[in-house]
Amino acid sequence: MNPKLPYVLLVGAAVIIFILSCMLLSRGGQSPSCESQPSVVEKTGSMSQSLVFADLTAEEMSQVVRYLQGHLGVPLVEASRAKPSENCIAWVDVQVPAKAEVLRFLDGSGARPPREALAVLYFGNQPEPNITEYVVGPLPVPVYHRDVTVQRYGGKVPYHRRPMLGSEYEQLRVFLETKAFAAAPTFLREVLEYDRTNVAFQTTVPHGFQSGDRVTWFVVFQNVSGFFVHPVGLEVLVDHSSLDTSQWAVSRVFYNGQYYRDMAQLESAYVQGRISVEKVRKAAWDGDFSSMKPRAPRAALFPVQFEPQGPRYKVRKNQVLFQGWSFAFGMSVSTGLRLFDIRHKGERVAYEISVQEALSVYGSNCPGGMSTRYMDGSFGLGRYTSPLVPGVDCPYLATYVDTHSLSDSLRPRKRKASICIFEHNLGSPLRRHYSNLQSLYYGGLVNSALVIRSIATVGNYDYVWDFIFYQNGAIEGKVQATGYPSSSFLHGDGLRYGNRLWEHTLGTIHTHFVNYKVDLDVGGVKNSLVAHDMAFEMTRAPWSPEQQIERPRLTKKVLDTEDQAAFRLQSKIPRYIYFAANSKNKWGHQRGYRIQITSFAGDHIPEASSMERAISWARYQLAVTRRKEEEPTSTSIYNQNDPWTPTVTFADFINNETITNEDLVAWITTGFLHIPHSEDIPNTVTVGNSVGFLLRPYNYYDLDPSVYSHDGVFFTSEQDFTACEINPLACLPKTASCLPNFPPFTYDGFRNM
């Protein structure tokens, strides 16, 4: 051996190390950037077909407004400044065509349905003020409009049922500050240190006790961050039923447990020393205890999810494709996020899945709290959908979709990043097995699902709406509640109605109910409803007749009528209840999709209540009815302000019609009871406040469709599980050792406020 050879090798190695070091330094010592790979997406459905469900574009909304301004023959005032006595366009949304018409287009040779809009107008400047709904079309250049109010509701909609516009809230604020409060200057100055900027008002609904009322309690809070938990003890009842704002008047005043005729009487009692004053400590502008500002310094960054080879889903306008899934999505002004034409492996499993309503019923010993029944659809779950913050509301690298809406205005508004779509690794197996008996192997599948999400902020509450698509053909609808709890001023026997959250703050007990419409089409439009469950039977052991065995057996029942398929809120419901197709799988079973509900709802308001029929959908955890075009929703935006004569009564949908081999709809109600507690300060967390439902294949396939997923892992004891071709997890150091391209953080949530 040449004695110089080791030195030559050492020098050569040093040169190689130097070169590699230079290369790393030139890259800043970082891993290479992740590069997108062609995603494997099954092509199901057509993007152009999905547009039949698409939300209106900003230009289409503007075209509808221009058409109505030029063809109704009446002056239309900008809704944002309209008086109750004037005419205005309240909102405009897409008019989804009839299902039969859409299916002919999607599945057959039918023509594309005309694209139309639904416009809701308030006519306050008419001999008989009313609410009128028009269908306007065809878009993009409308040439006709037709009044569909009577067709939809069986008659005209009285004007007092109209949801309040932002302009009416502003007019009420001005009334309270300039007229109502002017009658009690001493009380306001000395007790509330009132300076016209330091109080905030929260409205309550419904407005009164009988049809025609428009009388509202306004609860007064300190005007600080998180004001919902800073009550000052003052509440004012305003009668604003007159279309002439100069006729508005204070009907009653409440302060610290006592009622007064008006603000003047409150002032007089205070000046004479006949009031028990409970002065609230003035909070800092950030709300002090209600501040959302972090109390801890920054530390190590939380885990971040990324896709090392790019997204494995596609978003094409209003259509999403993910592995075997495809669906169209949209955002209704009143009901929020909704899905249409949901298919798996190319076959439609549901025509529509949509939120219908979110209801809260409050208790308190203060008038505003005890009379509150929020029906958030009337405020607008879509209208109040908020821009999403990347990295918190959704994964940072999710796909963000802008939406447009037209409400309270003549001009459409863009809400940037108001929907997010992402694939989510749940960090657990969808299925797995480790075998250490007989053969030795491991088989598993990562539980990675697609999520489409929006978040609606309606007053104090934030609702996180999710629809989740799993690789085994299951769909989940889920809502998580967060935001601030509503509160009352703590006095007297207040602790009968909640828990004390701060010095003067009573977190008031309330229920949350959420209603969904699920129009399943399992193996076709015609389905039946079938219940499977279990019962124990006693039998003698055949091999030992003197011994008795208790064994569970399967029970089966076809639910033939709507009455049989209406399950009351707290009643027992079959553990397996499913929509059954007219076709069978390979093993001779009816193909089906099972409905599984997750809920811990409080009690429904007593049916003897004068307003119960307006929310009668909440009587039922599940009700299955025949699908009818004239029953498109379980409630109405007009029910909130006249629940005593509801515009839509869900209970009337259930009339014992046969539901065997029919086009069926499942109306699902889920919810939870919320008794606010000290951990709801500064505000409520989503943990434990999540409810919803699952739609799961039940003999729909011949085997679990996720076996065809590209994410499966399998290796035996005899294989080299460190080899990429055997085990894809062994490739992670190579395929996932890259840096994702994080775009700069942006947020448009505070624009045009």
UniProtKB/TrEMBL annotation:
InterPro entries, per the entry: Cu_Am_Ox_Cu-bd, Cu_Am_ox_TPQ-bd, Cu_amine_oxidase, Cu_amine_oxidase_C, Cu_amine_oxidase_C_sf, Cu_amine_oxidase_N-reg, Cu_amine_oxidase_N2, Cu_amine_oxidase_N3
PTM field: Topaquinone (TPQ) is generated by copper-dependent autoxidation of a specific tyrosyl residue.
Needed cofactors: Cu cation
Signal peptide: none
Pfam families in the cross-refs: Cu_amine_oxid (PF01179), Cu_amine_oxidN2 (PF02727), Cu_amine_oxidN3 (PF02728)
GO MF term set: copper ion binding; primary methylamine oxidase activity; quinone binding
Residues forming the catalytic site: D376, Y461
Keywords (A to Z) from UniProt: Copper, Membrane, Metal-binding, Oxidoreductase, TPQ, Transmembrane, Transmembrane helix
GO CC term (a single one): plasma membrane
Name of this protein: Amine oxidase
Organism the protein comes from: Sterrhoptilus dennistouni
